[in-house]
Amino acid sequence: MMASNLATQYRDLTPAKALDKKTLNQMAWRSLFLQGSFNYERMQAAGWLYGIIPGLKKVHTNKEDLSLSMQHNLEFFNTHPFLVTFVMGIILSLEQEKADLATIRAVRVAAMGPLGGIGDAIFWFTLVPIAAGISANLALDGSIAGPIVFLLMFNVVQFGVRYWLMHWSYDLGTKAIEAITRNAKEFTRAASILGILVVGALTSLYGGTTIALTIPNGESPIVLQTILDGILPKLIPLGLTLGLYWLIKNKNWSAVKCIGLLLVLGLVGGFLGIF
Question: What's the confidence (pLDDT) of residue 1?
Fold first, then answer.
């Protein structure tokens, strides 16, 4: 591997000056391109180096040290794309202090690991359902503001998190790892539970599938949907949701297959007058 051919320490061991806010903000902006050259050998390594290189140029005025830093920052890297600036801030603080390369590598691996579960819990399980629920209600009412509100809510939060983590983790240095991982499991579980509750609420509020079948009964036909509502309102959307959950968990169905199944059920059911 390339790492075995690298030196273990920089030539110039004099700590560099603290990075200015403009450089930190520039790296936060560049973090948007983290997965621009994603590959299965080193994952996000090229995007990581592209994002962090403005800081490295300020820290390493010695060209050989800059080259060495760029080489080891091209090693395997993979973390949550919205939380990557957390790792950037920590690594830049170590590069600024001219720490030995083994320490920088170890910290980079330790910092990138826990962020996957935390990021998924925050963004995909919590933020997206909340933003989608609010914007979907607007869209169902025929308002063009629906998709605009969704994009604004999601991007304002994720941009804010990127910039805040960049400055916060850089100021804390390696202490930031302990701060964010101390209760990582509990935090991830709490955020996941909140996301599940939100998804359940959305199923109840916006699940619109109903049964259109009726049983002839003279002048007062029996409407099956009315009977189902008397048993449990939104019973059909709940059944569909639980059915999809079972297929995903026990049959390893993908989200695409589930969407395809719902599409077929909707078309066939609508054609036959069931839904």
Answer: 41
The confidence score (pLDDT) of residue 48 equals: 95
E strand or H helix that includes residue 61: none
Count CA atoms closer than 13 A to 45's CA, side-chain side.
16
Q: How far apart are CA 69 and CA 16, in angstroms?
A: 14
> Rounded to whole angstroms, how far apart are CA atoms 124 and 51?
23
Helices (H), the chain: 21-30, 45-59, 63-72, 84-96, 101-112, 115-119, 128-140, 145-172, 175-181, 184-206, 224-231, 235-250, 255-272
Residue 272: helix, strand or coil by DSSP? Answer: helix
DSSP string, 96-154: HTT--HHHHHHHHHHHHSTHHHHHIIIIIIIIHHHHHHHHHHHHHTT-THHHHHHHHHH
Pairing mode of beta strands 222-223, 214-215 = antiparallel
Amino acid at 103: T
Q: How many CA atoms lie within 13 A of 104 on its CB side?
A: 26
Phi-psi domain of 163 (left: phi exceeds 0; alpha: psi -120 through 50; beta: other): alpha
What would the pLDDT profile of 43-85 be if each residue is shown by its tens digit?
899 999 999 999 999 999 999 999 999 999 999 998 999 999 9
Put simply, whether the predicted model's pTM sits higher than 0.85 gets the answer no
- Among 104, 103, 95, smallest CA distance to 16 is for 95
Q: 147-192: per-residue pLDDT in tens?
A: 899 999 999 999 999 999 999 888 887 666 666 556 556 655 665 6
